[in-house]
Amino acid sequence: MRVVSGQYKGMQLKAVPGKSTRPTTDKVKEAIFNMIGPYFDGGIALDLFAGSGGLGIESLSRGVEKAIFVDLDSKAIHTVHENLRICKIEEDVEVYRNDAERALKAIMKRELQFDYIFLDPPYKKQQLVKLLEIISQQRLLKQSGIIMCEHSSDIQLPTLCGDLEQVKYESYGIIAVSIYRYIVPNE
Q1: DSSP states of 127-173 as a string?
Q2: Cβ–Cβ contacts within 10 Å for residue 82, how many?
Q3: pLDDT, tens digit only, all 187 positions of the chain
Q4: 52: left (phi > 0), else alpha (psi -120 to 50), else beta?
Q5: How far apart are CA 166 and CA 90, in angstroms?
Q6: Strand arrangement, sheet containing 164-172
Q7: Could you give phi then psi for residue 161, rounded to 5 degrees?
Q8: Contact, 178 vs 157, CB < 8 A?
Q9: What are phi and psi of 96, to 5 degrees?
Q10: Using H for helix, E for strand and C for coil, what is the string for 35-82?
Q11: Which of 51, 82, 84, 115, CA to CA, is 20 to 30 A from 75?
Q12: How, if at all, do strands 114-119 and 141-152 pair?
């Protein structure tokens, strides 16, 4: 695993020890950022199932100004910290050990909104629709923001979820990526 492009291009990232997490492959990571970027002019990102932190770190490498990393697994949190140290990213990041729903509640209390939200939950504990609904209802995404969902290709996410619509879908073997944005009203 490595940072694919941008300021930290080529930096080798550590994987979370054990089999509790499934890192996003470099090929899929490149495809994700080609769909939503590939580069950014600032903004704030949320990596909600951070694992090794690869997606959030990639977004920072490509120009996102601040990122929040959340994972429930203590080994994942340790790995995120290690990878941030490897890339010498100590500023403009926050790392929390928490489950996804509690993390979203904490974000609501802080009245934060994100430009980019990365959702890559464990495939066996699929909860993407519920999380998309919370994000939509609580307006946790900026109006022009993007949500990236990585999921098993045998899962079909809805094209509409609250005020969000699926604007892109790509499949890479057993992995699929769905991109959501707020519905743009017809003028």
Answers
A1: -HHHHHHHHHHTT-EEEEEEEEEEEETT----SEETTEEEEEEEEET
A2: 15
A3: 899 999 999 999 999 988 767 778 888 999 999 999 999 999 999 999 999 999 999 999 999 999 999 999 999 999 999 999 999 998 899 999 999 999 999 999 999 999 999 999 987 667 899 999 999 999 999 999 999 999 999 988 999 999 999 999 999 999 999 999 999 776 5
A4: alpha
A5: 34
A6: 93-97, 66-71, 44-47, 114-119, 141-152, 175-182, 164-172, 160-161
A7: -145, 105
A8: yes
A9: -130, 140
A10: HHCCCCCCCEEEECCCCCCHHHHHHHHCCCCEEEEEECCHHHHHHHHH
A11: 115
A12: parallel
Size of the chain in residues: 187
Looking at this protein, which amino acid is placed at residue 114? F
**CA nearest to 76, candidates 103, 49, 57:** 49
Look at residue 94 and give its three-state secondary structure. Answer: strand
Terminal-residue alpha carbon distance, the chain: 44
What's the rounded Cα separation, in Å, for the pair 107 and 36? 23
Give the CA count within 13 Å in the CB-facing half-sphere of 167.
Answer: 16
